Amino acid sequence: MATDVHRPVTRHAVHVEGLTRSFDGRAVIDDLRLDIAPGEFVALLGRSGCGKSTLLRILAGLDRDITGTALVPRRRAVTFQAPRLMPWKKVWRNVLLGLPGRPERSLAERALDEVGLGHRVDAWPKTLSGGEAQRVSLARALVREPELLLLDEPFDALDALSRVKAQRLVGELWQRRGCAVLLVTHDVEEAVLLADRVLVMTGGRIAHEQRIDLDRPREITDPRFAALRARLLERLGVDTAAA
Ligand SMILES: Nc1ncnc2c1ncn2[C@@H]1O[C@H](COP(=O)(O)OP(=O)(O)OP(=O)(O)O)[C@@H](O)[C@H]1O
Atom 23 of ligand 1 has which residue's CA nearest to it? Predict the structure, then answer.
């Protein structure tokens, strides 16, 4: 088994080749190939259960039971659908959780400022709204100064308005930080809004990829936006005529 995970890479932010992950003899990821360039924003779409989260967990280093090659930078960070905050730690301590050594509180303050939560540094997690909690988890990712940011459906649990705000924030952070992003999402519109390239995963592989060559900020009212959205929905097997 050639598990070549987590060596530093330079030319790519992610280099995956011949990656396979099986559960109970069934390959959920099947000979998958994927490259992400430094600073590139990639969105990953696919039907429920197609293996998106499994791939993300592998890239995050949380699942090493693989065959094939998966090279990612050492400085990487991941956020999940749920913010996963420790309720007995204040917000700033949650942000610094898991960092080596004795990181300074000011690090957390800076990251929280960046996500618009400078005023909630000393708050307890239970006093946060869903959108705020998700932003804390984003700050926890940013404090690691990632070259690769892995986002697993980070906006899914949010109401429509918080979702739009959070999407905008992620777009701004990405532009400011210049890190590569892999965003797993169910939402085709979100993918077209944010990504340089959208991947559609089927049968454990990347079955389709679509470059999004629209200027930013993007307008969903742009006919080119609608055309890309329709093409991706088609690739996902959604009947757009009936939608
Ligand atoms: N630890 C596990 N043990 C057994 N099967 C698993 C395990 N983790 C994932 N699977 C299976 O692998 C498949 C892919 O799961 P995964 O969570 O990666 O899908 P997904 O594309 O992220 O789905 P969703 O969009 O619903 O989140 C599913 O059939 C799931 O049941």
Answer: 49
Closest-lying ligand 1 atom to the alpha carbon of residue 55:
18
Which among 147, 157, 90, 155 has a CA at the least distance from the CA of 120?
Answer: 90
The protein residue whose alpha carbon is closest to atom 30 in ligand 1 is 49
Number of domains in the chain: 1
- Give the tens place of pLDDT for each residue, 148-163: 999 999 888 888 888 8
Query: Is residue 70 scored above 70 in pLDDT?
Result: yes
For residue 18, is it within any domain?
Answer: no
194 assigned to some structural domain: yes
Q: What is the dihedral of CA 44, 156, 129, 127, to 10 degrees?
A: -80
| pLDDT value of residue 239 | 59
Q: Residues for the chain: how many in total?
A: 243
- Residue 162 near residue 130, CB atoms below 8 Å: yes
Query: Structure tokens of 79?
Result: 């956020």
Give domain status of residue 93, yes or no.
yes
pTM of the model: 0.93
Amino acid at 106: S
Bridge partners (DSSP) of residue 210 are: 198
